[in-house]
């Protein structure tokens, strides 16, 4: 079957014309939203058209081919290399000179010294890598009709359907979090029978594919090397088939050949020898065999039910309705293609649902955190290594998690920070002679924490400190004292590192980081290195204040509280520059920076994700932040565009935020399968975009719940049900004619709350288990 570009364009044009003629003037929002389904009329021609399934550890990209189907496979611990420590033990002797050069403004010399003597060895970290492909060939199929492939975000099943002659074909793919496998169901109804040839392949090394019993295959191999670090992981992918309808099965040359079946079910288990960042002694052969033994004899239908139940327990906590228009009837790729010229509020809701789906599928307890591509990667050398970039991208992955009631999905991130504190303690001691722990701008499966990529990108010591704010947020939304006690040593360790390493700026007397940089922006004065960039000061204010709060709640470390408060108060303050902008550096270099429209807006950390800058609390700084956004421009790379949505929402600029969201949803920044286009693909834009939608509809800080702070006029009627506010409180919001109709608070903890609506407030004493309904009349 061939789908030509001309046919695709013609279908899109016809659908667009249908919208134009079918849309009634002033089509109403607030009607039933389009279902949470991505769907298409043709197979995927490339990877960014394929549909993702995942269970937090195993992932597959489903292409939906007719005569040949490809499932591109991932296992979240299959990275290049092995445990390693990249810190140069001799680098510490260069630190005093490096600081001296930076304070003296001799940036070129400082950068040259850092690149020569202070960076990690190797200079780059290990990449996340593809495991391989499952290829299904279907000989003898006639021409097909009624083709459709879709991804049901509510049940987490990707399905391909089509007809041939008098028969209907169905192919379903899911990733079970319960049974820890990928399951594929191939079936045909009518007179035809099912013929399929099955093969496993991998681009990795030492690959061997053999028969695994009369109806199975086993692929084994070893991971790749990178940057001089030898690959030492072993991995396996084991496949078993269940055949219905009296078919014949034959294995030959590492393939399976099935003929005359009515249905075939495939179960694929994958594992590596990874146990922990410092332990690769696992047994993938035994692990995959045990996984498949547990599902022996179980029907696909039961696994499908169990998968949907586990998925819906998380996915159905939140529901967003922004209304619908005829545009919602288009296939997903066509909706994206015409989104800049068609009113399609349900596309924003679908994008929001898709982000929640992707987070559930790529970050579950017991697995790895979502990386730069979440869980899905088809390369041995993916863009930016598909690592954890912790100067914004990893953090952005988790911005929506707490407010959309996916706190469990934060667990892998918390576990990664626990591990980074181990490796980061060695880095702090060896590189800086300091207590506590540090992580720079990137890390990988092996939890490397040294500065990488070159001083102009990686000599930035506050990545671990920023991650600690996520530890605190996870507590603040859940208010679990046992959890707080378990993560407090991580926060205190990060704080101790900066108590030992902050330097007194000889020009101002304030405490600053040195060496550092403002990610990832060259300032145009001979290099990137600097002392005390604005972002560092904002992150450290949060680190110190949140660690002080934690210690106070736990009744511990009185002396440390005093030290942290003193350091907090001595940090360099925010400054407004000669352009009226919030300065990015201690010096007013902004106007001289070579990229005025730089994608990073790191110095606006204090506005979002932090709340140190606000219209109410620091109006002059809020005006300066606004001026910075105007200078930088609204359109950037995918994730940077998403950040701008959040920033404008914090400034209560609803139309500006929505205009940027609309750009994010268009074909320049969203691929046909709704993956974010940096370009190329980075998943952080998906998560940042969803967080921006939340910011437009609800804010939550301290014990304040801010309702509809940046509701755009183009969403005049709608609802969002199940959002979470800090302090374990669920919030439902309904609005009509762009104004609040009612809000329902469902607290799990008793205590005071202030609810804000525009410039009005309502003070409440909430009681656990007792819902409270609010209408506009309650506010004064």
From TrEMBL:
Domain of life: Bacteria
Keyword set includes Signal: yes
Positions of the Glycosyl hydrolase family 95 N-terminal domain: 38-275
GO biological process, one term: carbohydrate metabolic process
Keyword Metal-binding: no
Keywords: Signal
SUPFAM superfamilies on file: Six-hairpin glycosidases (SSF48208)
GO MF terms held by the record: alpha-L-fucosidase activity
Residue span(s) of domain Alpha fucosidase A-like C-terminal: 700-758
Domain Glycosyl hydrolase family 95 catalytic: residue ranges: 302-697
InterPro entries recorded: 6-hairpin_glycosidase_sf, 6hp_glycosidase-like_sf, AFCA-like_C, Alpha-L-fucosidase, GH95_cat, GH95_N_dom, TAT_signal
Signal sequence, start to end: 1-22
The protein's name: Uncharacterized protein
């Amino acid at each position: 079957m061939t789908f030509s570009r001309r046919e695709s364009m013609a279908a899109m044009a016809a659908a667009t014309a249908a919208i134009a003629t079918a849309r009634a003037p002033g089509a109403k929002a607030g009607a039933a939203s389009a279902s949470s389904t991505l769907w298409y009329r043709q197979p995927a021609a490339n990877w960014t058209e394929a549909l993702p399934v995942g269970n937090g550890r195993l992932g597959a990209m489903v292409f939906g081919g007719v005569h040949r189907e490809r499932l591109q496979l991932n296992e979240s611990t299959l990275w290049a290399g092995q445990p390693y420590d990249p810190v140069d033990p001799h680098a510490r002797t260069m630190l005093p000179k490096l600081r001296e050069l930076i304070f003296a403004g001799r940036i070129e010399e400082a950068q040259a010294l850092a690149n020569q003597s202070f960076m990690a060895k190797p200079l780059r970290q290990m990449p996340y890598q593809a495991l391989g492909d499952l290829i299904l060939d279907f000989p003898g199929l006639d021409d097909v009709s009624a083709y459709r492939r879709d991804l049901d975000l509510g049940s987490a099943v990707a399905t391909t359907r089509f007809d041939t002659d008098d028969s209907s074909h169905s192919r379903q793919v899911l990733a079970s979090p319960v049974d820890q496998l990928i399951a594929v169901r191939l079936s045909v109804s009518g007179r035809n029978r099912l013929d399929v040839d099955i093969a496993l392949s991998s681009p990795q090394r030492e690959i061997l594919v053999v028969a695994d019993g009369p109806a199975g295959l086993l692929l084994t191999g070893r991971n790749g090397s990178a940057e001089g670090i030898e690959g030492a992981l072993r991995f396996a992918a084991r496949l078993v088939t269940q055949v219905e309808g009296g078919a014949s099965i034959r294995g030959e040359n590492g393939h399976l050949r099935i003929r005359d079946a009515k249905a075939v079910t495939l179960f694929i288990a994958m594992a590596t020898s990874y146990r922990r960042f410092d332990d690769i002694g696992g047994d993938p052969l035994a692990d995959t065999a045990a996984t498949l033994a547990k599902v022996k004899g179980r029907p696909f239908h039961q696994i499908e039910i169990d998968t949907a139940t586990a998925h819906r327990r998380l996915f159905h906590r939140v529901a967003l309705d922004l209304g619908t228009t005829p545009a919602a009837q288009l296939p997903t790729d066509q909706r994206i293609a015409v989104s800049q010229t068609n009113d399609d509020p349900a596309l924003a809701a679908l994008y929001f649902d898709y982000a929640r789906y992707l987070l559930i599928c790529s970050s579950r307890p017991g697995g790895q955190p979502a990386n730069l591509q979440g869980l899905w990667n088809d390369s041995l050398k993916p863009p930016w290594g598909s690592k954890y970039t912790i100067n914004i991208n990893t953090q952005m992955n988790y911005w929506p998690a707490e407010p959309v009631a996916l706190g469990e999905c934060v667990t892998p991130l918390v576990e990664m920070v626990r591990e980074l504190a181990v490796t980061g303690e060695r880095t702090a001691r060896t590189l800086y002679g300091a207590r506590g722990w540090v992580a720079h701008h990137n890390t990988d499966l092996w939890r490397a924490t040294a500065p990488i990529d070159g001083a102009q990108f990686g000599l930035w010591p506050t990545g671990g400190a920023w991650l600690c704010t996520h530890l605190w947020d996870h507590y603040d939304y859940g208010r679990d004292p046992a959890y707080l006690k378990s993560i407090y040593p991580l926060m205190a360790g990060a704080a101790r590192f900066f108590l030992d390493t902050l330097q007194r700026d000889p020009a101002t007397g304030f405490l600053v980081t040195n060496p550092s940089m403002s990610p990832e922006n060259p300032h145009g004065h001979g290099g990137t290195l600097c002392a005390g960039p604005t972002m560092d000061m904002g992150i450290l204010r949060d680190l110190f204040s949140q660690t002080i709060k934690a210690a106070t709640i736990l009744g511990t470390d009185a002396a440390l509280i005093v030290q942290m408060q003193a350091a907090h108060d001595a940090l360099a303050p925010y400054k407004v520059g000669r352009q009226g902008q919030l300065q990015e550096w201690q010096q007013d270099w902004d106007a001289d920076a070579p990229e005025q429209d730089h994608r990073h807006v790191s110095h606006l950390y204090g506005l979002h994700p932090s709340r140190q800058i606000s219209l109410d609390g620091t109006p002059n700084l809020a005006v300066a932040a606004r001026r910075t956004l105007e200078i930088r421009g609204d359109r950037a790379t995918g994730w940077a565009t998403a950040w701008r949505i959040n920033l404008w929402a914090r400034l209560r600029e609803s139309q500006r935020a929505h205009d940027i969201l609309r750009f994010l949803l268009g074909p320049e920044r969203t691929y046909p399968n709704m993956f974010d286009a940096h370009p190329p693909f980075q998943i952080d834009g998906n998560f940042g975009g969803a967080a921006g939608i939340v910011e437009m509809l609800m804010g939550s800080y301290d014990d304040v719940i801010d309702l509809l702070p940046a509701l755009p006029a183009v969403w005049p009627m709608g609802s969002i049900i199940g959002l979470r506010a800090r302090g374990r409180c669920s919030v439902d919001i309904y609005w009509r004619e762009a104004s609040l109709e009612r809000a329902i608070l469902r607290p799990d903890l008793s205590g005071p709350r202030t609810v804000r609506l525009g410039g009005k407030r309502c003070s409440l004493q909430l009681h656990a288990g007792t819902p409270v309904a609010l209408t506009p009349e309650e506010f004064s």
